[in-house]
Write a structure and sequence with these properties.
CATH superfamily of the largest domain: Response regulator
Shape: globular
Structural class: alpha/beta
Radius of gyration: 18 Å
Order of helices and strands: EHEHEHEHEHEEEEHHHEE
Distance between the termini: 25 Å
Number of helices: 8
Low-confidence stretches: 222-226
CATH topology of the largest domain: Rossmann fold
CATH class of the largest domain: Alpha Beta
Number of strands: 11
Bound molecules: calcium ion
């Protein structure tokens, strides 16, 4: 899952970035409202963490512009202000959640997990398909009771497909949600990662839909022919 972090306080930006990348997300960063708005406008993020007090363009304006342009990704707003009227203004501008500063990093991570599972139609941190379970809290993948070691790329790939179970996901979409903006992207590598994942899982829950992409069908649903 790929996130955008817009926060002008350098130390806080770095701390949040580290916590998010440690949790297995790929993260793009902006330090002012203009650049943040541009990134959200041009890149397909799974969720956004947006500070309200920002140079060049404030967070509420950034959010209003995105929503006016039909950007539907979940947005969590961060702000030092804790007045009820600021919260109301944030929600009315299109925010999905709100965390006042200072906060505990664990709470921010839990709220991001909740936003991501809600926006993809899941109700718990544990995403399952047959004998495979992916826990978005611990970033662990278990197959038939056994913990499987995955690289960060493999984990992101599986996590994205598990979040979007039942939908065919194209290679381009996978690339867009697995790498940050600076990464030298090559959609051919996706096939390699899929191959490794299938081998490690030992089960073929990932189907190749020729010409379209990949699919993890919800358990119990009969598979399309690959
Ligand atoms: Ca700020």
């Amino acid at each position: 899952m790929r996130l955008l972090l817009v926060e002008d306080e350098k130390d806080l930006n770095r701390q949040i970035f580290t916590a998010l990348t440690d949790a297995g997300y790929v993260v793009d960063r902006a330090y002012d409202g203009e650049n943040g708005h541009f990134l959200g406008d041009t890149e397909p993020y799974d969720a956004v963490i947006l500070d309200i007090g920002l140079p060049k363009m404030d967070g509420i304006t950034v959010l209003e512009k995105w929503r006016r342009d039909g950007k539907a990704f979940p947005v969590l707003i961060l702000t030092a202000r804790d007045r009820w009227s600021d919260k109301v203004q944030g929600f009315d501008a299109g925010a999905d959640d709100y965390v006042p500063k200072p906060f505990h990093m664990e709470e921010l991570l839990a709220r991001i997990r909740a936003l991501l599972r809600r926006s993809t139609g899941h109700s718990t941190n544990e995403l399952s398909c047959g004998a495979v379970t992916l826990d978005t809290k611990s970033s662990k993948v278990v197959v038939s009771g056994e913990c499987i070691k995955l690289t960060s790329h493999e984990y992101r790939l599986l996590s994205y497909l598990m979040h979007h179970q039942g939908r065919v996901v194209s290679r381009t979409e996978l690339v867009e949600h697995m790498y940050d903006q600076d990464f030298d992207r090559d959609s051919n590598t996706i096939e390699v990662f899929i191959g490794r994942l299938r081998k490690k899982l030992g089960l073929d829950i990932i189907q190749t839909i020729r010409g379209l992409g990949y699919l993890i069908a919800p358990a119990g649903v009969s598979a399309l022919q690959s």
